[in-house]
């Protein structure tokens, strides 16, 4: 193509990630001067990142999010590209060199690129479609913005929607995670015996299943769906299986795989097998001016459903067409996948397990922590590896898989840091061609070059290279590489301190503005402060939390801004039921309270009654419609075990009975819980009081912990953790009385409420702010803020309302409407 005339007409059929990326690569090589470029896209907008659709579904991103939109409509005009958006190519005449669109438009070409991508595969099931071939109402694929918007609209229409996702691969689990985040009851049905069977072996699949079930998603494997069940009005009511069993549902999402979209090519007489057959220059077989790229293309017998091979193909095709490298050849891709599946990090490459008797197979799994690791070595070469949960070794394994580093004799060191360099210390040693972001095909060299060309912040680098804007699993490594490349000269990114991405203000600035303008509803905040007054789904929950922190009961309660737990004041469980945890201040109860709890458990058939780690009793398995009645019969205050709030104060028996007690920890714990009960906080807040340094109540590893040390003195620790993260709290101060503990506790909690990021636990907040700075502000009052903190925490305390007082007057008709069907939970045997 080196002699292609400058007036040549280049037509690209498909405006998805492959088509648009190929055009970008062509333009980067001077193709704008060689070609008059036209694109046809059947969706009515510019190119967007399909990987981000799962983030849109879960509420972590909006449809107009800049991370989703890769090429807005203005990009095409600015680059001299004519885009026919919202028009489908329906016929190709290879001899006349024209493409006819659904609108009747006819576009001629000199060079044609087919980038039609792939379609959702819908298995042959009764009830899936209407008589005219359209999907039945309530049935969705998960392939485009229209699918995603349809699911969101149905999910938000009422509180009790349930969904079945058919297909337990990557896409299915992402759909399930997104819908679960929206508050739906979700079940995943998968024909094979374990989840993500294309990437994981059976052991890895079982570990992943446990992690998915922890999210409250029901999992059904080895189950083949035969029909979508519908009522007389045509609405979905559930699905049925080959064994005759059924599962109720209001929504069915089909993610049973994808198929290359080859209809246009096949009808035109091009060679099509699984995909459009192409050679090493992406040229269609027996054609001189027709090419194919992306998921629709079949190269050397392989089709690829991952973006990394698509980027490689785009570069090769651009080099061939522009003449920048006429001999460029695509020889196939060694697929290395690093992604985040429903919040779980996964990396996979090569084979899943041993295939010959001589293959070396190293495997480690820890279901409790959701960790699974394996590798396969043949003839001294790594031919496969899988990581789940902890993927810190993914960079090293990728190099080994590509044959760029020798394998250590101790194979286990490839999975754990036992002599081999850790990921954190080996960033400088990573090769420049190591692909860091699989979603957008960004290498270490791309990141380094971006920094050296003048990018000032991590945000600038990510915006220019698109690194980290897909599944997000590479963000940590991207940050390490960028920091290394900048040599310490990288500037701070102002947007990193914004409370929500759509409003350019820090949290204190946002609080001040909300107070000044008297904004009391999330919709008001969007209307007055967000860019172009647009709502951002990912900002709703943090803004609702902030408004409740500022205004207490006087905020305007908009149900759509709340998570299901906050709408019904209970913690949703995996089967769609809820848990009820009444308050037991300081872990102290009475025979009367215990009788009430026992009577309620009997009356409502509660399947599990459990003592919690916070010294309370949890009633699990309560139906949503029964929640108001249960709380009415209990007539006890809420324990706030469901929200981002002050949860509980754990205590030991202190001086009343313990031989070692140095202080009355029980009374102090009750005083703290009465003072701060139900306070809205950026993330859950757990407290504890220990009557002596033996620390029986685990106060040293709580968000706010208090330890009696004798002579009436108490040590106060902040920022501790003993969950997914382990951290001993920092000693904030030693005070002389229980009253001083309550006073300083209020100041710390209010400062945390006003300054922590959304979902930032104290074990991250305290190190970020700095212990010495907290002591200067809260203990020594060096900036004269203590009086204001005391006043505002008092206002918050005075505004406390038990949320279950509203049980007789629901906020909405659907608030406590039935949420059946429910999955049967395994009964816990009495021991």
Automatic annotation (TrEMBL):
<dbReference type="InterPro" id="IPR006066">
    <property type="entry name" value="NO2/SO3_Rdtase_FeS/sirohaem_BS"/>
</dbReference>
<dbReference type="InterPro" id="IPR036188">
    <property type="entry name" value="FAD/NAD-bd_sf"/>
</dbReference>
<dbReference type="InterPro" id="IPR052034">
    <property type="entry name" value="NasD-like"/>
</dbReference>
<keyword id="KW-0883">Thioether bond</keyword>
<dbReference type="InterPro" id="IPR016156">
    <property type="entry name" value="FAD/NAD-linked_Rdtase_dimer_sf"/>
</dbReference>
<dbReference type="InterPro" id="IPR007419">
    <property type="entry name" value="BFD-like_2Fe2S-bd_dom"/>
</dbReference>
<feature type="domain" description="FAD/NAD(P)-binding">
    <location>
        <begin position="9"/>
        <end position="302"/>
    </location>
</feature>
<dbReference type="InterPro" id="IPR017121">
    <property type="entry name" value="Nitrite_Rdtase_lsu"/>
</dbReference>
<keyword id="KW-0001">2Fe-2S</keyword>
<comment type="pathway">
    <text>Nitrogen metabolism; nitrate reduction (assimilation).</text>
</comment>
<dbReference type="Pfam" id="PF01077">
    <property type="entry name" value="NIR_SIR"/>
</dbReference>
<dbReference type="InterPro" id="IPR036136">
    <property type="entry name" value="Nit/Sulf_reduc_fer-like_dom_sf"/>
</dbReference>
<dbReference type="InterPro" id="IPR012744">
    <property type="entry name" value="Nitri_red_NirB"/>
</dbReference>
<keyword id="KW-0285">Flavoprotein</keyword>
<feature type="domain" description="Nitrite/Sulfite reductase ferredoxin-like">
    <location>
        <begin position="572"/>
        <end position="635"/>
    </location>
</feature>
<feature type="domain" description="NADH-rubredoxin oxidoreductase C-terminal">
    <location>
        <begin position="337"/>
        <end position="398"/>
    </location>
</feature>
<comment type="similarity">
    <text>Belongs to the nitrite and sulfite reductase 4Fe-4S domain family.</text>
</comment>
<keyword id="KW-0411">Iron-sulfur</keyword>
<keyword id="KW-0349">Heme</keyword>
<dbReference type="InterPro" id="IPR041854">
    <property type="entry name" value="BFD-like_2Fe2S-bd_dom_sf"/>
</dbReference>
<dbReference type="InterPro" id="IPR045854">
    <property type="entry name" value="NO2/SO3_Rdtase_4Fe4S_sf"/>
</dbReference>
<dbReference type="InterPro" id="IPR005117">
    <property type="entry name" value="NiRdtase/SiRdtase_haem-b_fer"/>
</dbReference>
<keyword id="KW-0274">FAD</keyword>
<keyword id="KW-0560">Oxidoreductase</keyword>
<feature type="domain" description="Nitrite/sulphite reductase 4Fe-4S">
    <location>
        <begin position="643"/>
        <end position="778"/>
    </location>
</feature>
<dbReference type="Pfam" id="PF03460">
    <property type="entry name" value="NIR_SIR_ferr"/>
</dbReference>
<keyword id="KW-0408">Iron</keyword>
<dbReference type="Pfam" id="PF04324">
    <property type="entry name" value="Fer2_BFD"/>
</dbReference>
<keyword id="KW-0004">4Fe-4S</keyword>
<dbReference type="Pfam" id="PF07992">
    <property type="entry name" value="Pyr_redox_2"/>
</dbReference>
<keyword id="KW-0479">Metal-binding</keyword>
<dbReference type="InterPro" id="IPR006067">
    <property type="entry name" value="NO2/SO3_Rdtase_4Fe4S_dom"/>
</dbReference>
<dbReference type="InterPro" id="IPR023753">
    <property type="entry name" value="FAD/NAD-binding_dom"/>
</dbReference>
<comment type="function">
    <text>Catalyzes the reduction of sulfite to sulfide, a step in the biosynthesis of sulfur-containing amino acids and cofactors.</text>
</comment>
<dbReference type="InterPro" id="IPR041575">
    <property type="entry name" value="Rubredoxin_C"/>
</dbReference>
<keyword id="KW-0534">Nitrate assimilation</keyword>
<dbReference type="Pfam" id="PF18267">
    <property type="entry name" value="Rubredoxin_C"/>
</dbReference>
<protein>
    <recommendedName>
        <fullName>assimilatory sulfite reductase (ferredoxin)</fullName>
        <ecNumber>1.8.7.1</ecNumber>
    </recommendedName>
</protein>
<feature type="domain" description="BFD-like [2Fe-2S]-binding">
    <location>
        <begin position="436"/>
        <end position="483"/>
    </location>
</feature>
């Amino acid at each position: 193509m080196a002699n292609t005339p400058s007036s040549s007409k280049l037509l690209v059929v498909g405006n998805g990630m492959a088509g648009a990326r190929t055009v970008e690569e062509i333009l980067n090589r001077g193709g704008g001067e060689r070609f008059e470029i036209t694109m046809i896209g059947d969706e009515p907008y510019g190119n967007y990142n399909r990987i981000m659709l799962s983030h849109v579904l879960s509420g972590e991103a909006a449809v107009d999010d800049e991370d989703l939109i890769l090429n807005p409509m203005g990009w095409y005009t600015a680059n001299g590209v004519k885009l026919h958006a919202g028009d489908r190519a329906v016929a190709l005449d290879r001899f006349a060199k024209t493409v006819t669109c659904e609108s009747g438009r006819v576009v001629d070409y000199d060079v044609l690129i087919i980038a039609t991508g792939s379609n959702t595969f819908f298995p042959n099931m009764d009830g899936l479609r209407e008589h005219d071939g359209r999907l039945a109402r309530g049935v969705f694929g998960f392939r485009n913005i229209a699918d995603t918007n349809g699911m969101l609209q149905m999910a938000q229409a009422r509180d009790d929607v349930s969904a079945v996702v058919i297909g337990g691969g990557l896409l299915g689990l992402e759909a399930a995670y997104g819908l679960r985040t929206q508050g739906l009851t979700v079940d995943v049905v998968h024909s094979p015996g374990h989840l993500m069977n294309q990437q994981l072996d059976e052991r890895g699949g079982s570990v992943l299943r446990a992690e998915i079930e922890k999210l409250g998603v029901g999992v059904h494997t080895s189950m083949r769906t035969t029909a979508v069940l519908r009522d007389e009005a045509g609405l979905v009511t559930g699905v049925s299986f080959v064994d005759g069993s059924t599962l109720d549902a209001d929504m069915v999402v089909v993610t049973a795989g994808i198929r290359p979209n080859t209809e246009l090519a096949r009808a035109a007489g091009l060679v099509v097998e699984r995909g459009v057959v192409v050679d090493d220059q992406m040229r269609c077989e027996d054609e001189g001016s027709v090419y194919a790229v992306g998921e629709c293309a079949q190269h050397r017998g392989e089709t690829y459903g991952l973006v990394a091979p698509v980027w490689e193909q785009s570069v090769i095709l651009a080099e061939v067409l522009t003449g920048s490298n006429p001999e460029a050849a695509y020889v196939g891709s060694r697929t290395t996948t690093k992604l985040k599946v429903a919040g779980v990090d996964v990396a996979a490459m090569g084979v899943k397990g041993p295939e010959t008797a001589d293959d070396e197979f190293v495997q480690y799994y820890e279901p409790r922590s959701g960790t699974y690791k394996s590798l396969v070595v043949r003839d001294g070469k790594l031919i496969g590896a899988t990581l789940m949960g902890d993927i810190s070794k993914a960079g090293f394994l990728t190099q080994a898989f590509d044959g760029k580093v020798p394998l250590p004799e101790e194979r286990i060191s490839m999975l754990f840091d036992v002599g081999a360099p850790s990921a954190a210390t080996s960033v400088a040693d990573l090769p420049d061609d190591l692909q860091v972001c699989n979603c957008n095909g960004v290498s270490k060299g791309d990141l380094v070059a971006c920094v050296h060309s003048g990018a000032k912040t991590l945000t600038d680098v990510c915006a220019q290279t698109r690194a980290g804007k897909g599944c997000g699993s590479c963000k940590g490594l991207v940050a390490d590489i960028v920091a290394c490349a900048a040599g310490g000269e990288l500037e701070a990114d102002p947007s990193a301190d914004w409370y929500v991405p759509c409003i350019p203000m820090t949290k204190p600035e946002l609080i001040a503005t909300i107070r000044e303008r008297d904004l009391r509803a999330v919709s008001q905040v969007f209307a007055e402060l967000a860019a172009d007054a647009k709502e951002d789904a990912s900002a709703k929950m943090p803004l609702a939390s902030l408004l409740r922190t500022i205004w207490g009961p006087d905020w305007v309660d908009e149900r759509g801004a709340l998570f299901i737990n906050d709408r019904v004041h209970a913690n949703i469980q995996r089967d769609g039921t809820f848990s009820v945890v009444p308050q037991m201040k300081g872990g102290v109860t009475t025979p009367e309270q215990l009788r009430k709890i026992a009577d309620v458990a009997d009356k409502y058939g509660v399947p599990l009654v459990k003592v919690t780690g916070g010294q309370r009793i949890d009633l699990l398995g309560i139906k949503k419609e029964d929640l108001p009645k249960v709380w009415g019969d209990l007539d006890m205050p809420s324990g706030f075990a469901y929200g981002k709030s002050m949860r509980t104060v754990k205590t030991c028996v202190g001086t009343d009975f313990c031989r070692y007690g140095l202080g009355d920890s029980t009374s102090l714990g009750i005083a703290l819980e009465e003072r701060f009960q139900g306070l809205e906080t950026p993330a859950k807040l757990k407290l504890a009081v220990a009557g002596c340094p033996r620390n029986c109540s685990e106060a040293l590893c709580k968000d706010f912990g208090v330890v009696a040390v004798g002579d009436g003195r108490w040590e106060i620790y902040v920022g501790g953790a003993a969950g997914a993260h382990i951290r001993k709290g920092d000693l904030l101060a030693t005070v002389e009385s229980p009253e001083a503990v309550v006073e300083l506790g209020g100041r710390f909690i209010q400062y945390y409420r006003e300054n922590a990021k959304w979902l930032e636990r104290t074990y991250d907040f305290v190190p970020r702010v700095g212990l010495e700075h907290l002591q200067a502000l809260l203990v020594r009052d060096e900036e004269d803020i203590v009086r204001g903190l005391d006043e505002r925490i008092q206002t918050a305390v005075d505004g406390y309302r038990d949320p279950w007082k509203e049980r007789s007057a629901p906020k909405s008709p659907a608030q406590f409407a039935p949420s059946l069907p429910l999955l049967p939970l395994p009964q816990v045997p009495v021991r």
